[in-house]
Amino acid sequence: MADVESLIWFIAKTNPRCEGRAVKSLTHAGIETFCPMQTVRRKQWIKGKRRSKDVQKPLFTGYVFVGLDPDNMAFGVARRCDGIGSFVGISGAPLPVSGARVCDLMAAQDMGMFDHREGHNRIVFEVGEQVIIDGGWIDGEAATVTILPRKIGQDATVEVDGRKVRLPVEKLRKVA
To answer: In CATH terms, are 4-110 and 130-174 the same topology?
Structure first.
């Protein structure tokens, strides 16, 4: 497995509902791939009873990130892989994506930010942890968590430049 940031990343458009097939085919061809997945709870009727189960679905339906070695840009091999329709680009030229952005998506998936199940704590913070505020009048500011909410829906208290501020937990993100 190559270093994620050393690869040049592109976005491949897959055939309908073929993200898994495309990832498997590209991996078999020796090409690095990443398909960010989200977890959702799907409700369905089974034998007259309403049941729910957790399902993994692609975050970007119909798209897969493809990492190619800068020394060997194997677009022909990637295009011939099963499940791949085309590459996202301008005037037929594939458009590269920053390796740092792909790393950020991988880190976000690892932290559970794409877990959309109801009542599921996506990110767990600890008192004293450094966070970044995401949105509002202090967007992008570094802060320290001082008080965590006891119930879902309550605000957390963070300290920014010596002042305590109450914010929704959804407005906080971990320092990478």
So the answer is: no
Burial class (CB in 10 A: 0-12, 13-18, 19+), 67: buried
Q: From CA 19, how far away is CA 55, in angstroms rounded?
A: 15
How far apart (Å, rounded) are the C-alpha atoms in residues 91 and 87? 11
**What pLDDT digit, counting tens, does each position of 1-21 carry?**
568 888 999 999 999 999 999
State how far the Cα of 61 lies from the Cα of 36, in Å rounded to an integer.
10
Provide the 10 A C-beta neighbour count for residue 25: 19
Residues 6+ apart with CB under 8 A from 110: none
Domain positions in the chain are 4-110, 130-174
Q: What pairs with residue 50 in β-bridges?
A: 45
Q: What are the Cα distances from residue 176, in Å, to 95, 107, 128, 132, 148?
A: 26, 8, 15, 10, 20
Q: Are strands 37-46 and 89-90 parallel, antiparallel or unpaired?
A: unpaired
Q: Which of 51-60, 85-94, 132-141 has the highest mean pLDDT?
A: 85-94
Please tell me whether the overall predicted TM-score, pTM, comes out greater than 0.70 for this model: no
Looking at domain 4-110, its CATH class is: alpha beta
